[in-house]
Amino acid sequence: xxxxxxxxxxxxxxxxxxxxxxxxxxxxxxxxxxxxxxxxxxxxxxxxxxxxxxxxxxxxxxxxxxxxxxxxxxxxxxxxxxxxxxxxxxxxxxxxxxxxxxxxxxxxxxxxxxxxxxxxxxxxxxxxxxxxxxxxxxxxxxxxxxxxxxxxxxxxxxxxxxxxxxxxxxxxxxxxxxxxxxxxxxxxxxxxxxxxxxxxxxxxxxxxxxxxxxxxxxxxxxxxxxxxxxxxxxxxxxxxxxxxxxxxxxxxxxxxxxxxxxxxxxxxxxxxxxxxxxxxxxxxxxxxxxxxxxxxxxxxxxxxxxxxxxxxxxxxxxxxxxxxxxxxxxxxxxxxxxxxxxxxxxxxxxxxxxxxxxxxxxxxxxxxxxxxxxxxxxxxxxxxxxxxxxxxxxxxxxxxxxxxxxxxxxxxxxxxxxxxxxxxxxxxxxxxxxxxxxxxxxxxxxxxxxxxxxxxxxxxxxxxxxxxxxxxxxxxxxxxxxxxxxxxxxxxxxxxxxxxxxxxxxxxxxxxxxxxxxxxxxxxxxxxxxxxxxxxxxxxxxxxxxxxxxxxxxxxxxxxxxxxxxxxxxxxxxxxxxxxxxxxxxxxxxxxxxxxxxxxxxxxxxxxxxxxxxxxxxxxxxxxxxxxxxxxxxxxxxxxxxxxxxxxxxxxxxxxxxxxxxxxxxxxxxxxxxxxxxxxxxxxxxxxxxxxxxxxxxxxxxxxxxxxxxxxxxxxxxxxxxxxxxxxxxxxxxxxxxxxxxxxxxxxxxxxxxxxxxxxxxxxxxxxxxxxxxxxxxx
Length: 779
What we know:
By secondary structure, this protein is mainly β. 6% of the residues lie in helices and 54% in strands. It has a 22-stranded antiparallel β-barrel. Strand 15 (231-245) and strand 16 form a beta hairpin. The longest helix has 22 residues, at 2-23.
């Protein structure tokens, strides 16, 4: 990965020199006539590519939140997690292993694996980032971001049953432009970035962008003797646009990132042994006593955590991607589009999964993902009909090993003689090869300037090849002590033949997703629509210490039928934008992380299918310029989720419960956001002040959260919380900007996840109050 970043940076430096020499005499497109500067008096027209063609936002029959790069910069939207500050219905959680969990309208997918297929898929210029751990560098140097809500499978493929996020990268320019950004904040956080763009040869333009983020430690341990939490992240992107002929345009994208940040530590709150089976071995007794007597926090503190002393918790993750898009015009309103991409991710993350300084559960998660995709489509447009037909092929190879050192209530196993043997090391192997092929079509028929219908369909076929096992980790006290005959690093999973070994199997799936909508435009700036959509999320195999092959049973694909009605309108000379939607999702086999008893390991997190469930709700957003210079936004989302019928799942307390009637985990019933910014002239400068507030109500992190022992009702509860941010600064001729900012300025103590992977109940806390200064320049 280091050589990839070196190549990108080297190419970027060459671009800087070439662009400077080639475009030095060209007029800059960023030049602003300062005499025309004035306070904001109307909202800008927003163009989006949600349907893979450029359209006005108010012409697209989907619920979409679109943000410009300028909005994101001012409001501190630096990565995917920050979208929950500004996108109605969007929420973010972090798994204990560091996988980001994105949810839209309460729908997400939670798992601790590296190769997790999400329900919210992220794209950069329609190029997929098909796994959650790939998305870290997606927000580099943007033109805008579009968040599409509801199932998007017909155009964007399966695994987008909740929605899709499409980042639009800033493109190469026809004249020389450059920019630089500098940010300094609390915990000695320094972000340095910039770009250079322009022509480098005849018919060739390019843009190079980079960003480096570093930060000191922000977490401290119980004894206040050690700190953790540094950030060390670098990312870069090189874009090349080549137009050899009027009818042909080719775009090349090379990007990558390197992350050596510390893994975030969770905070242990309670002792809940997963498998307290007597008689305990002496080693297990020592750990149980230490965890029983551990001084668990009883008050909220988002910086306090704990971890094993003497362990380096720095990640070693790196990502590389290359992509090419070619557009060829066959006629004035007919073109063929090809998008080719290859992505490679490697992760190596040390995780203290018990959240204490006791040697109980230490995981070294190692994994690699390679993903190659090809999309080919034909697009046409006319006064009355727009249509797209195409196909997509994707091939993924996912390998994961969880090197696990365990020393707790389940680190022992019975022998044939009836005694118990203590072991302290296992590996979990998960190797998947996935081939996905699909064909799709989308058409919009305009009966008149006011009425139109839209229909879309996609057929998808997917083949999984899986191999995995519970493996001895090679140490003298590995799992082979409990399974005589298993060699060092040998597989201990019992196969159908009754002997231990590597289990291999397959999962073949296919589905047909579709969408239909009826749309009415009472005027040019308004739209009312009603739609019905069918979507799917693929099944998968979990990473589990399976003693028997039968424990590798995969979760089957989930499906949803989504009903939605919505409206969008602008009025009063574009001083007001108002939009809203109501929706009802009917799910079959919703994939949820529950719990399963795995002898001898006890109660462990695992994926389950909930046969029937539903989501119902509504949302609204109002953006207004009530007076010149003042821009305000107010939005809200209501969700009601429910399991329908019998759903026998494992609770975090080790019992089988019926989740019938329960809400889906981690789905807050209410979310609200408000933001205001006032721009006003100060001499030749433009000053601004602004503030934003987001709030969500509480929710349970797991099914059966209220079925535990007395006093445990709050253990798996995610408390509701609100976050307040503020900003103020000045802009000089729209070229230079300096601003002060604060995030979570009330220092709210909040957590976005609660887990029970092992003997402790752990919270994953959000970031504390942050203050800083940000400066930018454009040339």
